[in-house]
Amino acid sequence: MDSGEEEKLVDVWRQDTTPVIFRQGKGFPLLVKLPATLNDDFWILYSKRSLPSRDVQYNCWKIPKSWFSNLVERLLKRCGQLYIIQPYNENEKCCYACQNAIHHICECSCMGANHGSLNIDNEWFSVSEAFVASRKERLLACRLMQNNLTQSLPKDST
Predict the structure, then answer these.
(1) What pLDDT score was predicted for residue 141?
(2) Is 109 inside any structural domain?
(3) CA–CA dist 124, 76 (Å, integer)
(4) What does the pLDDT read at residue 158?
(5) Which residues touch 52 (CB under 8 Å, ≥6 apart)?
(6) Residue 95 placed within a domain
(7) What is the b/e burial string over 110-134, where b = at least 16 CB atoms within 10 angstroms of the residue's CB?
(8) What is the pLDDT of residues 3-13, one digit of tens each?
(9) Is residue 43 part of a domain?
(10) How crowded is the C-beta side of 12, counted as CA atoms within 13 Å?
(11) Element of type H or E holding 143
């Protein structure tokens, strides 16, 4: 893996126009970085019982892993797109289970491009960009998910 992909991963995290969800893996909360227009407790909380905590070092929210799929869907509806950074397993081949999935967790070799493609309910989003980067001796996939309903609209309309 070249350093260009790692730099691209860091650039995705540091940009502040598109939401980013970082799934670190088992035993860790989600790290969620939102544009300033969305950085409020009420929007993130939605209908949950407790507030997520702030991570001052990375300037993001720490959110329970169980909120992942719901948060992805809400961000796609509200913002039209988001980045997901998550563990990647190049040896996990894309199969029927991935293509028929109803949730957004995908760690296989398709990097989300085929995820939920056979499930009629998931036709409203697409993966428009994806790459793999090596970071601290592990592989991470980054994918840009876009809401197909707002993809063709001008930015100020969404």
Answers:
(1) 86
(2) no
(3) 9
(4) 39
(5) 32, 44, 45, 61, 62, 63, 64
(6) no
(7) bbbbbbbbeeeebeebbbeebbbbe
(8) 688 899 999 99
(9) yes
(10) 28
(11) strand 138-147
